[in-house]
Structures are given as structure tokens and as C-alpha cells.
Amino acid sequence: MPSTPVPDDLRGYPRRMYGPVLKGQKVKLRPPDETDAQRFIDWFADQEVTRYLGTTFPLPLEQEKEILKKLGESKNDVFWVIEAEGKCIGGIGIHRIDWISSNGWTGIMIGDKECWRKGYASEAMALRTDYAFRQLNLHKLSTFTFFENEGSKRSLIKSGYRQIGVQKEQLWREGTWHDTWMAELLRTDWEKQHTG
User: Fold this and answer.
1) Burial of 92 (0-12, 13-18, 19+ CB in 10 A)
2) What contacts 13, CB < 8 A, 6 or more positions away?
3) pLDDT tens series, the chain, 196 aa
4) Beta-bridge partner residues of 146
5) 145 phi, psi to nearest 5 deg
6) Domain 8-193 in CATH: superfamily?
7) What is the pTM of this model?
8) How far is CA 49 from its chain centroid?
9) Contacts of 130-135 spanning 24+ positions with Cβ under 8 A
10) Cα separation of 43 and 50, whole Å?
């Protein structure tokens, strides 16, 4: 049972699901705008960026714009772009939200390689988690990454996620099978970490 009431505008299936602007010390999460589609295309064209992503090739501009538009219209996804150093550096979201069971899947991409290993992903995850539990009243967040993606695993653990298992040979990439590292974060555990 949720420990806090769900705001009236979030009951059932929310109408608008781009996330609101969230500001941290290093990053800002904001809804995408018309200039962001091309940035995602450029990032998806870089195999170093897409190495640990489900998407391995760029889409045409109009298709990328349509994907961002559909995310904004989705009743079961919340999506932001990540800004740092005065520019858009990636994207982050909560996806496949089950409003009855109060859980969702999370994902993040830092597409700007100049912004890797600067703590931006960890802060973006913290902002997303706070929003998921305090505003959307979710009970649990789940995620996965390639087992060898140590940077992502470190950021997730820092954000409170705990490993729940490993899926053997789950994804095919670069001519070989890869295991996936599964993790989750319960709101009750997160609240204990943030008491006071």
C-alpha cells in the first residue's frame, strides 16, 4: 500500500509524461525540445556510445523526432534530457510504468563522451529516483545493464540499487552473447537512506 497519497493529476494514467524540470548541483533534467533529436542521432551513430545500449544505430531525423514525441504522449513513460556544462549531454527516463503495481524500469544514456566519468549520471539518477518515489509514488524501480558495464553498475549502486541477479547470455552484441546485470531499488530502502 502506498505510504503517501497520489496527487489527483497523477491518479490512474497521467496525461503528460515528459518529466518536469529537475535541478541538481551539476545537472538539470528537462523535457526534450526540437533541437534534441539530432543530438540523439549523432550519439547513436557512435559505436562507443551505443556499446551498452539496446539501440545500435541512428534513425532518420523524422523518426527520432517521432520517438521523442511519443515519449511525451506516453502514459507509461517519463523522459528527460540531461543538461550539464550548459549543453544537452544525454537522456534518462522511467519506462513501462505499471501504475497498479507502482513500479517501472529505468534507463540512462550519457551520449556526450566528454561528460563521461564526471558524476553526471549519478546525480541524474538521484533526481530521477527522488521524483519517482516522492512525486509519482512508485514502489519499486528496476533496471539492467550489460554485466561488463562497470561504470553504469557503480552509478546504480551509488544511487541505492542492489543486484538481484544475472541473466546469462541475454544480449547479442559484437558477435558474442553478453550477460545482463539486474538490479532494483525499493522505495522503503531508499527512504531509509534518506531519513533526515
Assistant:
1) buried
2) 75, 76, 99
3) 344 334 444 444 344 568 899 999 999 999 998 899 999 999 999 988 988 887 667 888 999 999 899 998 999 999 999 999 999 999 999 999 999 999 999 999 999 999 999 999 999 999 999 999 999 999 999 999 999 999 899 999 999 999 999 999 999 888 899 999 999 999 999 999 887 5
4) 180
5) -150, 165
6) Gcn5-related N-acetyltransferase (GNAT) (3.40.630.30)
7) 0.87
8) 15
9) 130/22, 131/19, 131/20, 131/22, 131/78, 132/78, 132/94, 132/104, 132/106, 133/187, 133/190, 133/191, 134/4, 135/7, 135/10
10) 8
Task: Compute CA 81 distance to the chain's CA centroid, rounded to the nearest angstrom.
Answer: 10
The three-point CA angle 80-153-137 to 5° equals 45
Strand order in the sheet with 22-23: 22-23, 28-30, 78-84, 87-98, 103-110, 140-146, 176-186, 162-173
Sign of CA pseudo-dihedral 147, 110, 138, 190: positive
Cα-Cα end-to-end distance for the chain? 23
Per-domain residue ranges of the chain: 8-193
CA distances to 141, 165, 193 from 186, in Å = 7, 15, 11
- Among residues 108, 164, 97, the alpha carbon closest in space to that of 137 is found at 97
